[in-house]
Write a structure and sequence with these properties.
By secondary structure, the protein is an alpha+beta fold. It is built from two helices and ten strands, in the order H-E-E-E-E-E-E-E-E-E-E-H. It has a two-stranded antiparallel ribbon with strand order 1-4. Strand 9 and strand 10 form a beta hairpin. It is elongated. The termini are far apart. The relative contact order is 0.12.
Amino acid sequence: IPGVTEDVVTIILHLKQVRFRMFSDEPQTVTLKVKGEKKVKAGDIKTSSEVQVINKDMVIANLQGKQTELDMELRIERGIGYVPVEARKGEKQEIGAIALDAAFSPVRRVSFRVEAMRVGERTDFDRLTLEIETDGALSPAAALAQATEILLAQFQRIGEGLSKAESPEYPRGKKALPSEGKEKKKSKAKPKKAATPKSKKK
């Protein structure tokens, strides 16, 4: 780009590091329009009331010259986890649009440590220490609370499945026979008459 110190690849890498907080479930469009000799930062992005830039000091590009202009539109949307560009090839893109790898998770790093802990005279307790680092879009406490809710919901579904398996309606190790539950018809045998010998007259 004439008048811009960074190339397109470097600018894309810088844009991927800009973090947003959204207050809407619908995709939002923000703009970045800067002219003149200036260090362009994330704080120069013009947003609506539905979008907030978190790391405003993130440097995106450096403009050299009074006539240099940088103009772009950014589409912000919600998602889960990490979505590479290859997974978004099926989406329709506008002419001139550049798709980026999308990192939706606000959690940057998580580590844990288990240590022995003494309570009174007992020394067989364990203490769990969690270290959570986020990008600022979500506090570590809120991230842990959401993760706990997701985990409890998953365990609840597993418990519901096990309850159905143990239900009397689905007994284990027993198969219903075709004749089971049906009364057998008893046939009464009729007594046979004994044959009497016939005597011939002489």
